[in-house]
Sequence to fold (556 residues):
Amino acid sequence: MKRRQFIQKSTAATALASIGGLSLQSFSPSKTKKITILHTNDVHSHIDPFGPDDGRNANKGGVARRATLVDSIRQDNPNTLLLDAGDIFQGTPYFNYYGGELEFKLMSMLKYDLATIGNHDFDNGIDGLYAQIPHAKFDFVSANYDFSNTVMDTHVKPYKIFIKDGIKIGVFGLGIKLDGLVDKNMYKETVYHHPIEIAQDMSRILKEEQGCDLVICLSHIGYYYKNAPDKVSDITLARATKDIDLIIGGHTHTFLPKPTIEKNSIGKNVLVNQVGAYGLYLGKIDFYFEPGKKVSSEGASIIV
Amino acid sequence: MTIKHILKLGILLLIFSCASTKISKIEGKRLEIDDTLKPNLAIENFIKPYREHVNKNMDSVISYAKETYTKTDGDYNTAIGNLMADAVYTESNLVFNKRTGKDIDFVLLNHGGIRSIISKGNITIRTAYEIMPFENSVIVTAIKGKQVNEMMTYLSKSKRAHPVSNQLQLVLDKNGAISSATVHGEPIDESKTYYVATNDYLYNGGDGMVFFKPNENTYVLNYKIRDVLIDNFKKKDTLNPKRDQRFIQLKD
Fold:
């Protein structure tokens, strides 16, 4: 019932971005598959809700409430992935006292599927991050950090593929340039590669070689830098790549009221989303699939 | 669904049977986490002992403040700023000296880095978090006396009570020009190397403090300013800092 309300509400208050392809809905409704992507970013150890006296975010956030929301969405659609775009650590005394143990344990209890690594996740050094890995029952992806010469070697993969209801979903991770942002003593021998080339490689591997139906980039490179528009960001990444369906971002604490629709290098739509910080919001993107459906170059209809 | 429809479907499926599964529709939405959502009890119960431990620890009393101290209770130096700069000197020098055999000459912090008052009464670990919620840590840098002089010029022009430790004395004349500047009571020697402790924000040019670079050497102590304060407060039964003569302007 809740979902119905949600759809009615969203249809009423949304813009139809583009409608492409043939409408087959009338005669193949049973074959439509739905994948739900839930996401957070820059939660920064905000485990408890903000207190009633907080100047900006009074009574908002809180992991236990997020758990309730995630549960209800998963009950509605078991074909759901829960992702985090980095900066899990640092921001409340929980991190100072427990070094990220509680954050990882709670994310495991919420059944997070995957996370990428943010700059603040190095705040206790790469050794501090490594020490908490046993508490994470989910995986980490980063395609542009090379951890080969660090303790994190083998603990972070470039991408991970999920199969939900027969739909193949490829998710790869991207991290921000560490030099100048994080002390070298913290990230040690972690090597950063430029995100654009890596993303072009990743989307080719996931789309063409692995045959993924859905390609997601889990990014901590920042939404957009308006004072440095050439600096690599989720928006510049969306424009410079192809075959990425969704970029889930972090780092810039950008509170997008709804996902941004960008055109990629071949003129197709890419969704870019980020839900601010501190666990105040949960992003939810539903992808509907129809087998064998011919889709024009305009792509799917996007309702945001 | 009519027979005609089914036939049509069959043909379409034939045509597109080699095509892979495609996205037909995408819906995006942001959901707010607020108090209309009931907290998940299992999660809540899991957090509880951690929360209790943190709170108990945060509220544990480590010292006592004789008065209330604010960063606005002086023109060029304040009791709270002096307390912080001297604490950074004392605690960081223990680490620095052990590692290098050298001593820090003096400390410079920034007025804006004092994020809260110290209230009269019990000092807890939470007090240190309030004064210094950020993760900035101590950096010792080896700079020439020439750069120390640039720092003195900066301080004379900024007209703010940027905290300095008591090894430094800077006196401005009534017009705000430098009347005298000494380290350990000695005039600043332009060619001598000074070991100045600051925080990583200022070291990287924060607040326009561009005189830390270039430098002869930099020592990252991995010692957070907040931890400096906690360690320092724990050593003292009572905090009784004073405004003094380390950075002043002469009236006439």
